[in-house]
Amino acid sequence: MTDAIVVGAGPNGLAAAVTLAQQGLRVTVLEAAAEIGGGTRSGEGILPGLLHDHCSAVHPMAVGSPFLRGLGLDRHGLEWRLPEVDCAHPLDGGTAGVLYRSVTATAAGLGADGARWRRLFAGPAAGWDQLAGDVMGPLLRLPRHPLRLGRFGLPALLPATVPARLFRTAEARALFGGVAAHAFQPLHHPLSASIGLGILTAGHRHGWAVAAGGSQAITRALAAVLAELGGTVETGVRVRSAAALPPVAVTMYDLAPGAVAELLGDRLPRRTARAYQRFRHGPGAFKVDFAVEGGVPWTAPAARRAGTVHLGGDFAELAATEREISVDRMPERPFVLVGQQYLADPGRSVGDVHPVWTYAHVPHGYTGDATAAIIAQIERFAPGFRERVLGTAVRPTTAFPTDNPNYVGGDILTGAKNPRQLLFGPRVGVDPYATGLPGHYLCSAATPPGPGAHGMCGHHAARSALARL
């Protein structure tokens, strides 16, 4: 017998399943793919033994997740690894903005902007473990720590251009802007500072960690906890209609809102159906994995030690490229994220051949080939990179929804993070997880607090369901 069904075995689907099972419900998770994980899958590519993350790779929000930290996932093989340098943002000329886990170390490298960086992040980072429960949840509820939330939340309401203007040096502005650009939103839009501030604050507390053995280790550990609690996972099961599911007390959907609208059809209340069908998806990603002999020859020394490298030039250039992709124009020099997870997790490499993970921000549904643009951006800051490449694996923007249907048009965030959707999710309401149909709940990254392997969307959605049982 089953009390609850979860459709989708990504981090949020599994988090929802674990939360329900902890309260004694008998849970079955149905996954359409042959393996669990969604955006946290990993696998060998290009060369035998060379391990690449398929999408999600670096986890500053997951390593300190209030939900994940309480599960003892280390018992099931999850080990967090930290690079020497969390993130570097090289600039033309060989300098770079350099981010360390330590606020003090980061500030020391930012010269005239060190004191400003310390004032912006030292207090919130020190209190992140208390603040995270309020930040990583739905908006319309009483916060546990209102003063801390207010201190963090007021700057988060601003466009990213405003905090960037506080800094005098190009390095500090670019470092902040590159992290803010993770939102795939124009940096002059309201709330575009929020994701950057959240990632930076969480990272200063817990670091930009990677999972040893690939991001797949996160969902494998979650599945092991679920099995301990008596839950089951069935792969290769594609749900085409909610009517085909057995009647249970709770059904959770780790899916994009449009897919939920299709599954539920006329059963979904009209207001919710309209909101889900009108849900906006954001710009896309174009991914290229590289096998690189000897690593990337970055001009900036700190980038050679950084788990993540942001390539976008100075803040003005970065802001211009994010504006371009938001209006469906492909920039000549796109913002490129580079992952060097092997620096913290050497077992991903084969001898002196290393997996280098990259993707570029591109327009929604982009049908072109951004491989040359990505290589050119790396060459710009690491001359001689091409000569070290032994092989590539390309995942075009159009392939993302084939591998993961939640990534509509290559939107790996499962929805545009504009102000309304960032705050409320797919529809404005007190409970962003409720569909309006009793017993049916949305638990994907389309809901607050949004994308990442932290599991908080699924956890909060399951708590919403439990409150109604």
UniProtKB/TrEMBL annotation:
SUPFAM superfamilies: FAD/NAD(P)-binding domain. It comes from the Bacteria. InterPro entries: FAD/NAD-bd_sf (IPR036188). This is NAD(P)/FAD-dependent oxidoreductase.
